[in-house]
Specification:
One of its GO terms (biological process) is DNA-templated transcription initiation. The chain is an all-alpha fold. The chain is built from ten helices and no strands.
């Protein structure tokens, strides 16, 4: 029975390893730390596998272990950990929407100005912008947007109400869009029409 249980665990784990590593890498922002995080989370998952009564929920369960392990262990090792914002919004949380910036009247002929704007950025720019987000936003964006987990699963994984998940996702996207805008502006990726549209909106 013990052998069958271990084999079952290994099958479930193998199916989730790539997701675990992607999430771990996004959290730690370091390949070596990500591998260590996955390893530590795997050990904890095996120790607690008998407590998982519905193995169909293995993926959100083990991602919860990954995120909890990161929060409890790896964030403490940072000299300057990202602040966890619990109440008031900071200046960076002010509303910012690429659509609002790019949808000037003379740009409305374009079907999707946001897509054209994002396509002009390099993948590493987008990745760096996500990495620079505080933990509370990076976690939610990673799970909701990059891993496409349902809000309910993300809420369970992070022990948060669904409303908080939605709120953090909204604020995180706003911050991310603002960072991407400034990256593009600094690197000269913006088309003249985009730049004029932004100037007209005070960006």
């Amino acid at each position: 029975m013990g052998k069958e249980k271990k084999e079952h665990f290994e099958i479930l784990l193998k199916a989730c390893l790539h997701v675990m590593y992607r999430v771990a890498l996004r959290l730690t922002r370091n390949n070596e730390d990500a591998q260590d995080l996955v390893s530590d989370a795997t050990v904890l998952a095996w120790k607690n596998f008998s407590k998982l009564h519905d193995t169909r929920k293995f993926k959100p369960w083990i991602l919860k272990i990954v995120t909890n392990t990161y929060i409890s262990q790896y964030r403490r090792k940072k000299m300057n950990p990202d602040p966890i914002i619990l109440g008031n919004k900071s200046n960076e949380d002010e509303e910012f929407s690429l659509f609002d910036v790019l949808s000037a009247p003379f740009l409305l002929w374009n079907n999707n100005p946001e897509k054209i704007f994002l396509d002009s950025l390099l993948r590493q720019d987008i990745s760096r912008a996500i990495d620079e987000l505080p933990d509370e936003y990076r976690l939610v964006i990673t799970l909701c947007e990059l891993e496409s987990l349902p809000y309910q699963e993300v809420a369970k994984t992070l022990n948060l109400p669904i409303g908080t998940v939605r709120s953090r996702l909204h604020r995180g996207k706003s911050r991310l869009q603002k960072k991407l805008w400034y990256y593009a502006k600094a690197k000269g990726f913006l088309k003249p029409s985009f730049a004029r549209a932004a100037e007209g909106k005070g960006v």
